[in-house]
Design brief:
By secondary structure, this protein is mainly α. The protein has one domain: Glycosyltransferase, CATH 1.50.10. The protein is built from 16 helices and no strands. The longest helix has 20 residues. It is globular and about 55 Å long.
Length: 310
């Protein structure tokens, strides 16, 4: 990624950050495309699944913006575009009929469903798969199983929304000094799904108090490491659990400062490499190193605007 990016944007406000982020996304929309890139007849079908990650996260971002009361004409345009990319759900239906174990890809449809897009054929397939023994036994990380339950619940298909219970990482109240990047990712995602991205209280009082105590310290570690991806996710958690004022600095400020005038926020070293595919050009790989941190920043900005509207 060699050459340095543009200088940081001077307007360090969440609303300005959102607008710059939306602009960057629309300028790179083709990189989120899946319709022309997916080949369900390929023997390397799993490689095609990585194409769903960026567009699924984009759909979640657009939905969260809407939930936070941030309505922009670009959001509606992007939602329509994403739905067309799924061929109005037909592409996801074909994917799930080819590989039922790709059920977690329902996350893309779950966000779209909350934005008003539904497809009867896809609903039928998901309804059948959600009740299989396979759905309960998929080899997912704990937060991934929680995410699957959450997304099936959004679709009205979750049979056991509370099946994970005390098996989650946060429920163990782990020693705070053991938290690494991988564990930080798990913690943030458990909080997202347990709190419905800040729209529901965290029901376990002990976990809530534990997180309010330690999240500011963990966030500061990732800020100091220049990992704006996890700093942004902890900025989201900050707002999901209502930390409010703290003796530690809010990680949202450093994330805002890291956003460029072009609208993107550079990911940490190695960001996006798991999504690389043979034949990707340099521009594609640069995009994959930036898009996730940019979307995370936008969601953190949206939650800030919801809690502290300008």
């Amino acid at each position: 990624m060699g050459t340095p990016g543009p200088s940081a944007a001077p307007n360090l406000s969440p609303r300005g950050g959102l607008l710059r982020g939306l602009t960057w996304i629309t300028e790179h929309l083709d990189e989120f495309a899946i319709a022309r890139r997916m080949d369900l007849t390929s023997p390397n079908l799993k490689d095609n699944l990585v194409l769903l990650k960026p567009i699924s996260e984009l759909a979640l971002t657009i939905w969260l913006l809407e939930r936070c009361g941030i309505h922009h004409e670009l959001s509606g345009h992007l939602a329509d575009w994403i739905w067309q990319q799924t061929e109005k759900g037909k592409l996801l239906t074909r994917l799930l009929l080819a590989r039922a174990d790709f059920l977690p890809c329902c996350s893309l449809y779950a966000s779209l469903s909350q934005l008003g897009y539904r497809a009867e054929h896809l609903d039928r397939v998901l309804s059948m798969l959600a009740t299989t023994d396979m759905a309960q036994a998929l080899p997912l990380p704990r937060w991934g199983a929680l995410a699957l339950d959450y997304n099936l619940s959004l679709l009205g298909l979750s049979a056991q929304p509370e099946r994970l219970g005390n098996s989650l990482y946060t429920s163990a109240l782990p020693e705070p000094w053991v938290v690494s990047g991988e564990l930080g990712y798990a913690i943030t995602h458990e909080v997202f799904y347990l709190t419905d991205f800040g729209f529901a209280p965290l029901e376990n009082h002990d976990v809530a108090e534990y997180l309010r105590l330690w999240v500011p310290y963990w966030a500061q570690v990732f800020v100091e490491e220049g990992d704006h991806d996890l700093a942004g996710e902890f900025a989201m958690v900050w707002r999901c659990i209502g930390i409010g004022s703290s003796s530690m600095s809010d990680p949202l400020g450093p994330v805002l400062s890291a956003q460029t005038e072009d609208g993107y926020v550079q990911g940490p070293e190695g960001a996006g490499t798991v999504l690389f595919r043979p034949g990707d050009d340099a521009a594609r790989r640069v995009f994959l190193g930036r898009y996730h941190t940019t979307l995370v920043a936008m969601m953190a900005y949206a939650l800030e605007l919801r809690h502290s509207p300008e």
